[in-house]
Amino acid sequence: MTREHQMALYRSMKLIREFEERCLDMAIAGEIIGGIHPYIGQEAVAVGVCSQLTERDFITSTHRGHGHVLAKGADPRRLLAELLGTLEGFNKGRGGSMHAADMKLGILGANGIVGAGGAIGSGAAWVAKARGNSEVVVSFFGDGAMSQGVLLEAFNLAAIWSLPILFVCENNMYATSLKLESGLAGSAARRAEGFGMVARTVDGMDVEAVADVTGELIQRCREGKGPAFLECSTYRFFGHHSVLELLGVEFRDPDEVVRWRERDPIVALGAKLGDDVVAEIDEAVKGTIDEAVEFAKNAPSPDPKDALMYLYSGTAAVRPGVIL
Amino acid sequence: MTTAVRNQELSMSAALNRALADALEADERVLVFGEDVGPLGGVFRVTDGLTARFGEHRVFDTPLAESGIVGTAIGMAMNGMRPVVEMQFDAFAYPAFEQITSHLAKIHNRTRGRVELPVVIRVPYGGGIGGVEHHCDSSEAYYTHTPGLRVVTPGTLGDAYQLLRDAIDSPDPVIFLEPKRRYWSKGPVALDRSGPAMDRALVRRPGKDVTLIAYGPMVATALETAAAAAEEGWDVEVVDLRSLSPFDDETVTESVRRTGRAVVVHEAAGFSGYGAEVVARVTERCFHHLHAPILRVTGFDIPYPPPKLEEHHLPGVDRILDAIARLQWDDEVVGFGG
Question: Catalytic positions of B, please?
Fold first, then answer.
């Protein structure tokens, strides 16, 4: 991997980290109402995977989706504006943290329902295959989603129809609070193999390794060899949701948290790049996020009357017959 | 393509089949898929012959995975297609409810109009075929309670054709409820689209004494009741809602203000049923025109019963006539609740 490539990966991961740390502060301060599911710790997965995609490729994301969206190229100013519920957000503030999506970048939506994106991604992949244009879809989900029926339905559909989709399981070992071994029979990757998919596992704290194996699997998808599965072992450095930070609830073994934090993917790649490079990128990223915060905080709020609009297409009208 | 063929003798199943065929012919983005809709032609024959005519790339079978089917349809629509999926039976759609209510219904609104989802979910619904529970549910209220969906049901052969064409052309997601007990009813049908817009109700029979508000499988029953009521001296108007969501307040309100009396009829259970919404909103708009409370004639508040009880459960002419008789014609207080 070239140094330029490494620098790009580092910058993207650092952007997510800085964005999420700022969001966590804002959520705890009550500025992001409803809070966030911080992606901190898992940056190498989103960045490594999305480094292998073009703007024309699609992703489906999750409730913990800021990292995926930023890695796919979304403007942090508009993402933060969305989190703050303002009109400058991708969905004019209607989607919020769990529904950030910039369709122009092929982001088919983050999603508040665990596992729900797999089938939606398969539908987009069906069309890509029918058009024969070598576009691919990546569907992100966590280990918790492996227990959802619709995701297993999506695996089956993608396999029987040989769809160009890469299923990326971010195994952070917890489904909210439930430990992996209490929630998942067998192994995620072995299950995928049961559907006839090529399945690989990778150290999700090593962004270069994630990028390399994703590249191989995406190439298979582009060549029409059907769906593939990638299990990334990773860890979230904070709790499931910002409110747990606020409440001071930590259900994991503190030593386990410390051990994983020592494997910080950003620190690891930074060490390869050297202090000067890191300092320069960090400074630039901080400026970008400062600007995003400034932009989002000054963005206008929606007019309450607009809440009734866009129920149906075309008219932008309220539900016919509603009595105001 | 609006076909010029007129007044053929067709079943409702065949009229729906023609609608699908014409939609597939008119727009190459239209896809038809679901359980057994391919070479078999659907358990109700609605997709008969379509795979042979349009190819397996446009009309195809899926595994038994309703949630996956609807989710896939959403992704296809986001990527430019116009999927029409079949749920085979009403209760088979329940596993897909999460995809319908959390995603299909919400994405257009959430993206503030930037993403349209022209998906049609065809649901053979309602009873009258001896199918017991899981195969005879009237599931409309689950969908009408979800903002963002259009919910449509044809009560006539002509509407089977036109409403399905309109639903497929709609830029919004449409739950298309097909009254399965009427699949085999036959008659001359004009395969055209000359009726009112998909979201408008229609007065099927004019009358001046009382308005029967019906939809889907109950339209034929309401018309039959109106004919019987005429013999007893009541001039009954029948309004076919066609679109359950959005609701055509204008047509219904105009009718009820004119007649001053109304009965809502549906197969679904009464408690928290669709009729409750109809009664509430019509009362809100027509209160000073009403001579009696609006009554409902519905299925009982029980799971769908087995065949020998079906005829009691489903509203029939006698029960509807009885409701009409209780509409305070003689200024007597009506006895409610038994």
Answer: 135
